[in-house]
Design goal:
The structure is a single chain. With about 450 residues, this protein is of the alpha/beta class. It has two domains: about 5-260, Ribokinase (UDP-N-acetylmuramoyl-L-alanine:D-glutamate ligase, 3-Layer(aba) Sandwich), CATH 3.40.1190; about 270-450, Class II aldolase/adducin N-terminal domain (L-fuculose-1-phosphate Aldolase), CATH 3.40.225.10. Helices cover about 40% and strands about 20% of the residues. It has helices at about 20-30, 60-70, 85-95, 125-130, 140-150, 155-165, 210-225, 230-245, 260-265, 270-285, 340-350, 365-375, 385-390, 395-410, 435-450, and strands at about 5-15, 35-45, 50-55, 75-80, 105, 135, 170-175, 185-190, 195-200, 300, 310-315, 320, 325-330, 335, 355-360, 375-380, 415, 425-430. The strands form four sheets. A seven-stranded mixed β-sheet has the order 14-11-10-15-18-17-16, sandwiched between helices. Helix 5 (about 140-150) packs across helix 6. It is elongated, with a radius of gyration of 23 Å.
Length: about 450
């Protein structure tokens, strides 16, 4: 039996189990990695905060790393709570002795409840010794302000701060926006080659966010260990975290933890097929027959980190208009629609948060209903399509999706085109999973019905 990818976490222990080593090991294991660890600090901690911090001797941390890296090795690693200059020196020394190219540094400075997790005297050591070793550093906004030496208030500030942190040595920076304000959360990935990408998602209203930073950085390291590219790993890890936050649970009297188990459970082949079956039940009940286009519809969902057609499931034979009802030819299956797969793969390559899509008929009335439903809507013109794309069968959808994501700088909930000669105009409704897409389509159909006083 082939061995599992190996992921190493170098972090503190959270006795409450929501963050730190505990969250890292749980996340790596659920994402299919063999998880190893080097404990730096033991905390007395629960959902209300940190009651005590007990750093291990630097030689104990170095010995753990020497044991693991000297025998087992690792395909990727992450650091979390390092606490002191002495511990940072021990970790950096071990990693210079046995380099780990895929190293994610989470510059943990302050706990959720406000307790300091990095001594002030250790900040210079973190910058000087750990950041140059990092493939990726993942500061939140307060941490980024410390590292960049500036106040961050605008999108322009974030871009400047990202470049300043890059100048400190890492190959890439993921500046996390969860500490910002407003309905939308935006993370910014910048790399040393000058590339940048903004990831946007709606803020999830929950107090149960303990361990979000640990879960994200561990998931990125796990996906890197599994062989995903850096951008793909960040996109897949963000999806994993968003599900873990949506499914977070209350525990104790304070901030409950994220739920990596739910995120992993909702991400496998069987889970994708089950969600498509549940999505069909939503569509069957809502019966949005008036939204089925002439070429019929389909609903598809991709696996996290999807790389090919076989990673996308849809309905073979499409979703049909049969009299006054929607109907399907068969149950969902992987590899069932190359057209829908091209849309989702193009979406994934540009780090969209959406893994599912359904095409519905185009019309100004439907666009208006989408907007009244609260969906963000953008479009592209097939007349702008390059000749070489037109000549390649099925490439328009891939090109159009990529064009919208690049042109507008975010992933809208719906993308439309007005068609071309022999090509029916279409609207494509996106969502994080197939059930969300089906519910969105059902809501659009209801809105359309209400506005017309008749069938959608």
């Amino acid at each position: 039996m082939p061995s599992l990818p190996r992921m190493l976490t170098i972090a503190g222990s959270d006795s409450g189990g929501g963050a730190g080593i505990q969250a890292d090991l749980r996340t790596a294991t659920l994402l299919g990695c063999h998880a190893t660890s080097a404990v730096t600090v033991v905390t007395a901690q629960n959902t209300l905060g940190v009651q005590g911090v007990f750093p291990l001797p630097a030689e104990a941390v170095a010995a753990q790393l020497d044991s693991v890296l000297g025998d087992i090795g690792t395909d990727a690693a992450k650091t979390g709570m390092l606490f002191s200059a002495e511990l940072i020196a021990a970790v950096a020394g071990a990693l210079r002795k046995r380099p780990v190219p895929r190293l994610v540094v989470d510059p943990v400075m302050v706990a959720k409840g406000g307790a300091p997790l990095l001594q002030d005297s250790a900040r210079d050591a973190l910058v000087a010794e750990m950041l140059p070793l990092a493939e990726l550093v993942t500061p939140n906004l307060p941490e980024a302000e410390v590292l960049a030496g500036m106040t961050i208030a605008t999108a322009e500030d974030r871009a400047v701060a990202g470049r300043r942190i890059l100048d400190l040595g890492p190959a890439a920076v993921l500046l996390k926006g969860g500490h910002g304000e407003g309905e939308w959360v935006e993370d910014l990935l910048v790399t040393r080659d000058g590339a940048s990408h903004a990831f946007r998602c709606r803020r999830i209203d929950t107090p149960n966010t303990h361990g979000t930073g640990c879960t994200l950085s561990a998931a990125i390291a796990a996906y890197r260990a599994r062989g995903l590219g850096l951008g793909e790993a960040v996109a897949a890890a963000r999806e994993f975290l968003l599900t873990a936050i949506r499914e977070a649970y209350s525990l104790g009297a304070g901030h409950g933890p994220t739920n990596p188990y739910a995120a992993a459970r909702l991400g496998g082949h069987n889970a994708v097929l089950e969600r498509l079956r549940l999505a069909w039940e939503v569509l069957e009940q809502a019966n949005p027959v008036g939204l089925i286009p002439e070429v019929q519809a389909n609903l598809a969902e991709a696996l996290p980190g999807a790389a090919g057609f076989e990673d996308v499931a849809a309905f073979p034979g499409r979703i049909l208009r049969c009299g006054h009802r929607v109907a399907r030819v068969d149950g969902p299956a992987f590899g069932a629609s190359r057209h829908m797969a091209k849309i989702l793969l193009a979406s994934a390559r540009r780090a969209s948060p959406f893994r599912a899509v359904m095409n519905v008929r185009y019309g100004l009335d439907v666009l208006a209903a989408c907007r009244r439903t609260g969906l963000t809507v953008e479009g592209f013109s097939r007349h702008e399509e390059p000749p070489e794309v037109k000549r390649a069968e099925g490439s328009t959808l891939e090109w159009g999706t990529a064009t919208v994501l690049e042109r507008f700088g975010y992933a809208p909930d719906a993308i439309y085109d007005e068609g071309d000669v022999g090509k029916e105009p279409m609207i494509r409704v996106f969502g994080t999973d197939a059930v969300e897409v089906a519910r969105r389509v059902a809501a659009v159909a209801r809105n359309l019905t209400d506005s017309k006083g008749g069938l959608a």
